Amino acid sequence: MDRPNRKRLLKIGGVMILASLVLFSISVYLIDSNLVSSNNVIISANSTYTLPKGMVSAGDDIDYTINSNLNGFNLTSYVSYDSGATAAYVNATNSSSVTNVVVSQYSGNISLVVVNHGPGAINVDVSIGTVDYATLVTTIFGFVLLPSGIVLVGIYSYSRHVERRKEKLLRGFD
Hints:
By secondary structure, the protein is of the alpha+beta class. Helix content is 39%, strand content 39%. The chain is built from 2 helices and 8 strands. The strands form 2 sheets. The chain has a 4-stranded antiparallel sheet with strand order 1-8-3-6. Helix 1 packs antiparallel against helix 2. The two termini are 30 Å apart.
């Protein structure tokens, strides 16, 4: 039986681990670069705040978060397209944060609209981001490469352990 070259397993495993780390880093950069946020926004009673995001393609994931240090605010949030279409309505009462993820049905510029229905002004941190298909595939591919590389390095280590044990037995426990 022809055995695989163990050193090749180690090199391939190391390259796979390194490649997965690079892909994860690229994914984090792409996700972070597509994030728009605005901190310490004061929204008066019965008024609206709009955070423009920019261009989005149909099929992209849109993720938005609204946080407040005030528990129990009363607001409505939704994503508005430049075509006039809206999506991802959330009515929030009795909570300090709102998070929503929706798949974009349309292409175009989007904005996050937050409407305060409460009796007083609220101070919120608002962020909206998009994750496109390429970024998602990059993240998943990096996630698959990491354990695969770790398994190859583990196989190398185990085969070295078995080989040393055989050598020890053949020497007669000197």
